[in-house]
User: Which sequence fits this backbone?
C-alpha cells in the first residue's frame, strides 16, 4: 500500500487506526485521505485498509 507516496507492506488486515498507531501518528492530530476521499475520524477504527489502497496523512502542527 502507499502511505504519503511511499510503498509500505501490510502484515495483515488492519484498521486505519491501527496503521496510524504503527506509523507513530496521533490519530487526534491528523486528517486522512483514503484513495482520494476524506475519511472521517469516526471511521478510522472500522475502516480496513488493503494492499492496493493509497493513504495520505496530513499532520496538524502547532506553532507560534
Assistant:
Amino acid at each position: 500500500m502507499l502511505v504519503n507516496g511511499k510503498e509500505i507492506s501490510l502484515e495483515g488486515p488492519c484498521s486505519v487506526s491501527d496503521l496510524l498507531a504503527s506509523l507513530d501518528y496521533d490519530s487526534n492530530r491528523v486528517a486522512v485521505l483514503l484513495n482520494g476521499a476524506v475519511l472521517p475520524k469516526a471511521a478510522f477504527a472500522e475502516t480496513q485498509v488493503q494492499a492496493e489502497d493509497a493513504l495520505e496523512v496530513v499532520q496538524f502542527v502547532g506553532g507560534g
